[in-house]
Amino acid sequence: MWSALRLAIRAAIGLLMVTHLPAQQMEWDQLPPIPDHEGFAGPFAGVSGGALIVAGGANIQGDKWKEPFVKKWYDSIFVLDDPKANWRKAGKLPRPLGYGVSISTDDGLICLGGSDSKRHYASAFLLHMKGGALQRKTLPSLPMPCANACGALVGRTIYLAGGIETPQDTTALHKFWALDLDAQEPIWRELDPWPGPERMLAVAGALDGAFYLFSGTKLAADADGKPVREYLRDAYRYTSEQGWKRLSDLPRAAVAAPSPVPTIGTKLLVITGDDGLNVTFQPVEKHPGFPRNALSYDSSTDTWTVLDTVPISRATVPTVLWHDRVVFLNGEARPRVRTPEVWSLRLH
């Protein structure tokens, strides 16, 4: 009995740590929108040569609300040389591609995996600026095709977690891979996965030499063989020395939240994302959007705080650190609705 009581007291204390506070340390602003009236979900985004790069992604063509709706993937690449400049076209991807993982490095933007209208890919390549022009370099392919994964750079090692292998799959991947960019012959290594369910559309972060994995969705087949999502709230930290550690659960699910997550001090910020509460909302054209708050995880205390409020509702959007601000490139504002908006966040 006393053991159960202690557990109940600990749970109550944990809940008290999740308080609603004003987001006084978050300064939001907008950059010039992408020159596309719809905008893109799941584009690649990063920095090279001081310029901001956005490539690929997908949106919905024609009537968004009819069944079935038509999704289109893109190969376009746009570059913003300065926060006060205008976006310019800078070439094309080797194919229409979206929903991969973006990693910004000192060498440029690394694009990993992704999908088009028919299949998923294992491709990996670097986009980098040279003499004002965008160039592409092939990198070692992923161990298997993968879309809707998450990843982050820890030191000079890329970590990539989860995803889904084919568009038809009803089970997400329980895979965790690493690529040491400084290795003489870089090659993807498969590591032990996190001690929790397989998932896709999870959220990644990096802080103090550790990789973080938050939320995501598990998949299962329904009676008709179609994938059904289970929204997850678990969280994990990985270091090469100690492996995986389970952390406190998120206050809510944050599927496909902007990734990698911004950091400030000892904290990682999971901003907006899909909590799953309105997944069956009808009519879909009246969907209210995703939660407009941020979940702040303090790595020094293993506690979460809910920060109210943020000006955006977003899912499937990459983040980029540029000019001392975290930039949010397009994404999904609510189901079936993309946005050309580009928001930036300065943390104090």
TrEMBL record:
| Keyword terms, alphabetized | Signal
Q: Which domain of life is it from?
A: Bacteria
Query: InterPro entries in the record, alphabetically?
Result: Kelch-typ_b-propeller (IPR015915), Kelch_repeat-containing (IPR053256), NANM (IPR056734)
Q: Write one Pfam family the protein is assigned to.
A: NANM
Q: Reply yes or no: does the keyword Nucleotide-binding apply.
A: no
Signal sequence: where? Answer: 1-25
Q: What is this protein called?
A: Kelch repeat-containing protein
Q: Which organism is it from?
A: Chthoniobacter flavus Ellin428
Q: What is the lineage of its organism?
A: Bacteria, Pseudomonadati, Verrucomicrobiota, Spartobacteria, Chthoniobacterales
